[in-house]
Amino acid sequence: MLRRPVRNWASIWKRPVRLINCQKKTGMARQLHARRLEGVDKNIWVEFTQLTADYKAVNVGQGFPDFSPPSFIQEAFCSAITGGASMHQYTRGFGHPALVKILAKFFGRIVGRDIDPMEDFQITVGAYQALFCTFQALIDEGDEVIIVEPFFDCYQPMVKMAGGTPVYIPLKPRKSTGPALSSADWVLSPEELASNLNPRTKAIVINTPNNPLGKVYQRDELQMIADFCIKHDIICISDEVYEWLTYDGAQHIKIASLPGMWERTVTIGSAGKSFSATGWKVGWAMGPGNIIKHLKTIHQNSVYHCATAAQEAVAMGFQREYDTFGTEDSYFKQLPAQLHKKRLRLAECLRSVGLEPVMPQGGYFMITDISSLQVDLNDPSTKDEPYDFRIVKWLIKEKGLATIPVSGFYSPEHRGNVQNYIRFCFVKEDSTLKAAEDIIRQWSVKK
Amino acid sequence: RHRNKNSKCNLYMASVTHKNAKRIEGLDKNVWITFTSVAADPTIVNLGQGYPDIPPPSYVKEGLVQAVMVDRLNQYTRGFGHPTLVKALSQVYGKVCGRQIDPFKEILVTVGGYGSLFCSIQGLIEEGDEVIIIEPFFDCYVPMVKMAGAKPVFIPLRLSDRKTDISSADWFLDQDELASKFNSKTKAIIINTPNNPIGKVFTRNELQAIADLCIKHDTLCLSDEVYEWLTYKGHDHVKIATLPGMWDRTITVGSAGKTFSVTGWKLGWSIGPEHLVKHLQTVMQNSLYACPTPLQEAVAQGLLRDYELMGQPDCYFSSLAEELQGKRDRIATILKQAGMNPVIPEGGYFMIADVTALNQHLSHVEDDEPYDYKFIKWMTKEKKLAAIPVTAFCGEESIKHFEKYIRFCFIKQDSTLDAAEAILKNWNKA
């Protein structure tokens, strides 16, 4: 029985031929890969990081800082490394005790409840793995998962790999205002949300602050989603990796802190994004013990442990942030203040060449409509791709500037409608932003 | 358990169903969770869980400090493996295997050997498949195969007739029995050499017999070789992937944690042909995307250093094995003194011992558990010595064959072994 409609009949009759070729090359006649991998083999990051490296482009594409992490966090890691033999051996699989304890304290203070460090946390290899554990633990074949578009691209293949069916609800510009030039102008429709519910709906995934748009969901927006989850007994997966990065007075609110939501929410966090050290790959899933226990089962049967010294260092970082929270010394306060300026600077540059950036209320990224760009695209290798993919590849190859096409953050079903946006990451050194600006200003723009 | 600050929450809890996905049914128990709580008690001499309490080589730790101080090494690296590391792995294993290994297409860096097993099984195994697992086996193979929806098929290592001075070489696979386990559904066989817990180092002939069956039945081989450097005098590690016809159907798993005595770094790798590794890479890109950068850089530097020293006494790959040989022999002696019958391992850092001769009555220990579980609980409480029950490493049907065995880990400092010796010497006194 076919799992999805066959779009390309040619692929059917080609199959036996491919199998024979496979046999000649591999000496194996049987199908090698597990079917769970079907349709999830492409990855935008693998493709674009390679291209960026090949062309040595100015990288305002992938979301990582190119400035140094705060020295206290690097020192914390060094201190952990030289801190005794146990730092180099296995720690507790579900999370290094020092780390889960400080996270429970830290977030307990924020959400206003006692969080159990041993029961309510699973430490993971980055927030990415927390998302993986969550989907694998909770989603079965046929379960539906509502994903708010645009979304961090991994949600879709992860839901698919778990046998689930993604259902997409778009953030859309409010009709009443003019051009939607702030991420706040992009909203969810409660009617659309409700109409996409059915008996198999198991979970909804939200990301606030949002990648790529930068939207920071307001309390009433989260309440609307909470009401929906409570009414229909749905789990909320809340990806909050950019939680400290809000600008212009926008406040990050944890949906898990709304009444009735702790019991049904898995909140995802990231040390990499919190401390500008994305290469450490330490993240967590936080939630009620009766849900987290299922993530633990996945974790103990997939990687089991995360690196001890890295967890110890993150624990030290969080202790410092706990002690300095809200003060000028807090990195969680300093970083958004730094990034606020970079964000304004990039927006100004884009506007100066006639582009229309969507000002993000939070996060690492800014998207901009590029329809007014005059570009002579004559790269035959990209001719079947969406327009934004073509533009981005042209920019990398011809202009040495790396960005990311926004249709990559939309479902295959809706990708065609959103081919005019590209995403910039402004969490970069001033010299990188300057180099990007110099390239941008050279474009000719016709309205 | 939670002191709910908002009383409304209690109303909502009852209505929440939150059923877990079927793939984890029955997989929540784990032998390590039961036994690692023991490790926390400082009065207990812990020869249980398999990690060193000896320090890692200093150049490895220094390498990590250096990596952390380089800003860009604190950010994302290539998902399938940090370039410096995959190139170093390609060099080391290229030399060991005697073939060119493409660092980008034939290697995947994973979260420990454990993560390699996971990517391999998720990438290549599915519902309807059978996977042959040799008992006793590192316990995670079974839940991983089950989570992938497949059926584990067991075959035990069997002890020959030998009665004294037993070594892991006296444990073997019955060839007819092995052949009978293969059928058209057999997608893969998992082998572990050197084996945990017995310490068996499969000989070339034994591996050839397995290879012949793999080729005959068009089966994949997942070869867990995390202890590859730890073989003792007279025994050589053989890579099944180097046997004719096997490279194209084998994934070989290695571990930085076991290689450099840094189990807490959780870095490992899968090496194999592109047409297999690419599927593991797909799992990787959809599960955790990349491993930590500074740790990968440090492992790369360690590998490059020891690559230059390969064949020389200074090379950590061989100097660790030498150091452990002495500990192995020492532990064997003191276990015998207590009246246990150890199985001398040819490789790895574990030793199993038969406790039958001690005739320890355990009917007073309630629990409907195999003998070795009861023995361990008794020994931990009464003798303050921890080990691991070997039936944790076998299927239900083989419990009778293994329940008189317990596993000791000997990659421990002399002071730990001294403490163990004191306990074992006094075993029979009150």
Automatic annotation (TrEMBL), chain A:
Entry keywords, A to Z: Aminotransferase, Pyridoxal phosphate, Transferase
GO cellular component terms attached to this protein's record: mitochondrion
InterPro entries on file: Aminotransferase_I/II_large (IPR004839), Kynurenine-oxoglutarate_AT (IPR051326), PyrdxlP-dep_Trfase (IPR015424), PyrdxlP-dep_Trfase_major (IPR015421), PyrdxlP-dep_Trfase_small (IPR015422)
Aminotransferase class I/classII large domain segment(s): 58-437
Transferase in keyword set: yes
Pfam families assigned to the protein according to its UniProt record, in alphabetical order: Aminotran_1_2
Pathway recorded for this protein: Amino-acid degradation; L-kynurenine degradation; kynurenate from L-kynurenine: step 1/2
Essential cofactor(s): pyridoxal 5'-phosphate
Record's keyword annotation contains ATP-binding: no
Gene Ontology MF annotations: cysteine-S-conjugate beta-lyase activity; kynurenine-oxoglutarate transaminase activity; pyridoxal phosphate binding
Known catalytic reactions: an S-substituted L-cysteine + H2O = a thiol + pyruvate + NH4(+); L-kynurenine + 2-oxoglutarate = kynurenate + L-glutamate + H2O
Similarity section: Belongs to the class-I pyridoxal-phosphate-dependent aminotransferase family.
Classification via PANTHER family: FI04487P, KYNURENINE--OXOGLUTARATE TRANSAMINASE 1
Protein name (record): Aminotransferase class I/classII large domain-containing protein
Automatic annotation (TrEMBL), chain B:
Domain Aminotransferase class I/classII large intervals: 43-422
CDD domains reported for this sequence: AAT_like
Gene3D superfamilies: Aspartate Aminotransferase, domain 1, Type I PLP-dependent aspartate aminotransferase-like (Major domain)
UniProt cofactor(s): pyridoxal 5'-phosphate
Any one of the GO CC terms: mitochondrion
Keyword terms of this UniProt record: Aminotransferase, Lyase, Pyridoxal phosphate, Transferase
The organism's place on the tree of life at top rank: Eukaryota
Alphabetical list of InterPro entries matching this protein: Aminotransferase_I/II_large, Kynurenine-oxoglutarate_AT, PyrdxlP-dep_Trfase, PyrdxlP-dep_Trfase_major, PyrdxlP-dep_Trfase_small
Enzyme Commission number(s) from the entry: 2.6.1.63, 2.6.1.7, 4.4.1.13
Subunit structure: Homodimer.
Family under the similarity heading: Belongs to the class-I pyridoxal-phosphate-dependent aminotransferase family.
Protein name: Kynurenine--oxoglutarate transaminase 3
Organism of derivation: Pygocentrus nattereri
